[in-house]
Amino acid sequence: MIDYADLSARIAALTQGETDEIALMATLACELHHADDRFDWTGFYRVVAPDLLKIGPYQGGHGCLVIPFSRGVCGAAARTRQTQLVPDVEAFAGHIACSSSTRSEIVVPVIGRAGRLIGVLDIDSDRPDAFTAADQAALERMMQDVFGDL
Ligand code: SME
């Protein structure tokens, strides 16, 4: 299990005073991806138009460039503003398979000041049922800490 307290302290130190969304996303994607062997694709999709996500900073193999809110796990997270914890991607209707090795994933909405939807954090794993409620709680808190005032 990832040491979220340690990771969050490192991220806070690295990102202190930074307000550029892309710089923050790039730093988080890197730090998260290398912190846990379960994470095979770690990155952000950004809201670029009403109901439209585009790829942001990420680590791992290439991701889909464009995801409408109506599609996939990322779209569901953006549409509902609720974290999507998917233990088995094959059981999720409309899952977008960018990598056939992906078995499970978690997608956390990234919300700024006054409820502005900035994008989503998407972490994919090649292991089935890789993510827990503890991951969800820690990642939601991390997104709030880093992006909540932007
Ligand atoms: N997890 C996404 C798609 C995979 S990415 O392009 C890396 C989804 O179904 O929303």
UniProtKB/TrEMBL annotation:
GO cellular component terms attached to this protein's record: cytosol
Database matches in InterPro entries: GAF (IPR003018), GAF-like_dom_sf (IPR029016), Phosphatase_reg/MetRdx (IPR051330)
Domain GAF, chain residue ranges per copy: 55-145
Organism per entry: Paracoccus sphaerophysae
Similarity field: Belongs to the free Met sulfoxide reductase family.
Pfam families associated with the record: GAF_2
GO molecular function ontology, one term from the record: L-methionine-(R)-S-oxide reductase activity
Record-given protein name: Diguanylate cyclase
